[in-house]
Structure of DUF6534 domain-containing protein:
Amino acid sequence: MADIARNHGALLLGGLLAAGLSGIVSVQTIIYFKLYPLDQPILKALVVIIWSLDLTHSGLICAAIWDFLIQDFGLAADIDIIPMALSLTIVFTAILTFFVHCFFAHRILLLSQRNWYLTMPVLFLATCRLCSASATSAEMIRLQMFSLFKAQFRWLFSLGLALSSIVDILVTISLFVLLTKSRSRSLSLNHIIDSLILYTFEIGSLTCAATIVSMICWLTMNSNLIFMGLHFVIGKLYANSLLASLNTRRELRRHRHSHDTAIPALASPRRAEAFFNSPFMDSEIQLQHVQINVEKSITYEHSGSLHTSRN
């Protein structure tokens, strides 16, 4: 007899949590367009894409739960059947995750002064993760039964989750190292960088933990759908992490101006430009608008008198 609580119940709870997180994504999207109307069009397009993918993903979750709880109500034997909507949630989660990983890979590229050797592994593994999830959805649609899919392609779904976790770890470590190297002796910028480092760990650890827990449930619990209920939530966490990164820029800027308004010297001018032009900071902060006035004093002796010139 099928375990209704750990199958239908897990999907219902996962769907409810995903719906709540999807609402937060929508609120964050509205806040973004209200606070940052001057952002670049490509960044606005990215936000619209993330929002659209999230809404579509939520619709597919609702359709899958409808199939399990309404259309097939009372048919315990049909718990093994994979609705098409459920299969599609996996590829939409992967697409959304891919865009978020590319976003943070771009941040790594800028902060590392366009170091492709550091950025390419993230992009490559993110692409592999997308391909793995796409193949997973395709095989689920073809086989239409969990038992057959688990017997033949357990490794494929596990590979996708593992790759997602690895990319999260790489992104977190890369940003941590780059931001740490960017720290200077000025307390004003150090305060901002420390906040970014902490925030980077919070984002990376949350998404990575959710992915790992889902993979553990997938590998150890063969007779229920708890892993899928957790998988519903993963895409929402990635969407919220990207939007939160964009929406916290104003707060970081406020912290920066509350300290010394002078911009300290970073490791190099390029690293400074990358830091201040990154979406972690307010898009209105542009390094080329910063003017540094250097006052120097020159003392010289002319015709027996001492003169001082200031520039």
Observations:
- The beta strands are 297-302, 305-310.
